[in-house]
Write a structure and sequence with these properties.
The structure is a single chain. This protein starts with a helix and ends with a helix. Helix 2 crosses helix 5, helix 3 packs antiparallel against helix 4 and helix 5 packs antiparallel against helix 7. 7% of the residues are buried. The protein has nine helices and no strands. The chain has a domain of 102 residues. With 182 residues, it is mostly helical.
Length: 182
C-alpha cells in the first residue's frame, strides 16, 4: 500500500486496518458466489420455462407473468439477509469511532495506564458507540416490514399459481397429464 506520508498522519492505524479488512471482505463477497448464483438461477428459469412451454404452455405464460414479482420479493429478502437495508448513513472511521478508540487505547496501553485515564477512554468509547449505533427501533421495524413484504409477495404468487392452475385444469381436463409431467 503506497501512500503519501500525510495520508498516515491524518488516519489512525485502526482506521487503516479496518478499511483494509472491509475491502478484502467486500471483494471476496462480490467475486465468486454471486456470479455462480446468478448463472444457476438464470439457467433454472430458462430450463423451467422451456419445459413448461413444451408440456403446458398456459402454465408457462403464467410463470412468465409472475417471475418479475418473485424476483422483486427475492431481492427484498436478499437485501435484508445481506444487511443492505441497515443504516444508510456512513459511519465515520477514525480516532473518534469505537474501533479507533479501542485500537488507539490498546496500542498505547502503557501510556493510558501510566496516566490512569482508563475510565476516560472507556467513557469515550461508550459515547462513540452510542453515536455509531443510531436508531435501532426504526431499523428493526423497517427490516421486519421488508421481510414480511417479501414473504407475503412470494406466498401470494404461489396462491395465484395454484388458483390459476386449478382453473386451467378444470376447464381442460386433458392438461392434467402434462401438468404432472412438468
Amino acid at each position: 500500500m503506497r501512500q503519501e506520508v500525510a495520508f498516515f498522519d491524518k488516519r489512525s492505524v485502526g482506521s487503516i486496518t479496518s478499511q483494509l479488512q472491509d475491502d478484502v471482505a467486500f471483494i471476496f463477497a462480490f467475486s465468486g458466489e454471486p456470479i455462480r448464483t446468478l448463472v444457476i438461477n438464470v439457467s433454472s428459469v430458462v430450463t423451467g420455462l422451456t419445459i413448461s412451454m413444451i408440456f403446458m404452455w398456459p402454465f408457462a405464460l403464467l410463470s412468465i407473468g409472475v417471475i418479475p414479482a418473485m424476483g422483486f420479493a427475492t431481492a427484498l429478502e436478499m437485501k435484508r439477509f445481506l444487511g443492505e437495508d441497515e443504516g444508510g448513513e456512513a459511519v465515520e472511521d477514525g480516532r473518534d469511532s469505537p474501533g479507533g478508540i479501542i485500537v488507539e487505547t490498546l496500542l498505547n496501553i502503557r501510556t493510558v495506564s501510566a496516566l490512569t485515564i482508563e475510565e476516560q477512554r472507556f467513557d469515550d468509547y461508550c459515547k462513540a458507540l452510542e453515536k455509531a449505533e443510531g436508531n435501532m427501533t426504526k431499523e428493526a421495524a423497517v427490516s421486519g416490514v421488508l421481510s414480511g413484504l417479501s414473504i407475503g409477495i412470494q406466498q401470494w404468487v404461489n396462491a395465484l399459481v395454484s388458483v390459476l392452475d386449478y382453473a386451467c385444469l378444470s376447464c381442460t381436463p386433458l392438461l392434467l397429464t402434462p401438468l404432472l409431467r412438468s
